[in-house]
Amino acid sequence: MRAPKVSRFVRDQAGAAAVEFALVCIPLITLLLGIGSVALMFYTNAVLHSAVERSARSVAMSSSVTQAQLATQINSYLGSLGLSNATVTFTVAAGVMPVGHITATLGKTYTIPFMAPIQINFSADTYVPQGP
Questions:
Q1: What is the pLDDT of residue 2?
Q2: What phi, psi does 115 have (nearest 5°)?
Q3: Longest CA pairwise span in the chain (Å)
Q4: Which residues contact 121 (CB under 8 A, 6 or more apart)?
Q5: What whole-number distance in Å separates Cα of residue 111 and Cα of residue 37?
Q6: How many helices (H) and strands (E) does the chain have?
Q7: Burial of 59 (0-12, 13-18, 19+ CB in 10 A)
Q8: End-to-end CA distance of the chain
C-alpha cells in the first residue's frame, strides 16, 4: 500500500522548477554582484587615468604649474565623480625640453558579498613636455 504513494511522490514534478531556481539563484546573484564590483574597479582606474591626463594639459600649456595646483585639479575631478582624494606627485626633468612627470595614486577598499574586503591601490602616471 505504501509503495504506490512513494513512487507517485518520486514521479511528481510539481515545484521542481522552484527548487532548481533556488539552488541556482544564490550563485547567479553572487556572480552578478562580483561582475558589478569588478566593473566599478575598472571605472575607478579609468577615472584616475582621465584625471591625470586632464591635468597634463595644464602642464603642457604653462611652465608655472605647481604640484599643489595639479593635486587640487586632479582631486576636484575625482571628487566630482564621488571618489576619494589621490596622492599626486609632480617632477620636472630639466634638459633641452623640460618634461613633467605626473603620478597619482589612489587607494580604495571594495566589499564584495561573501568575500573579505579587498584593498586596491590604483596608480596613473604620464609624461608631458612642459610649456613655455
A1: 56
A2: -135, 160
A3: 100
A4: 105, 106, 107
A5: 8
A6: 3, 3
A7: buried
A8: 99
Measuring CA to CA, which residue among 106, 105, 97 is closest to residue 127? 97
On whether the CB atoms of residues 75 and 54 are closer than 8 A, the answer is no
Distance CA(97)–CA(18), nearest Å, equals 70
CA dist., res. 124 & res. 47, Å (int) = 10
- Domain span at residue 10 reads 2-129
- Please report where in the chains the cell 576636484 appears, as a residue: 76
Number of domains in the chain: 1
The DSSP-derived string for 42-77 is HHHHHHHHHHHHHHHHHHHH-TT--HHHHHHHHHHH
Asked if pLDDT for residue 107 goes beyond 70, the answer is: yes
The per-residue pLDDT for range 3-36, each reduced to its tens digit, is 666 666 566 677 778 888 888 998 899 889 889 9
Distances (CA, A) of 126 to 20, 79, 94: 52, 20, 16
6: which 3 cell numbers?
A: 512513494
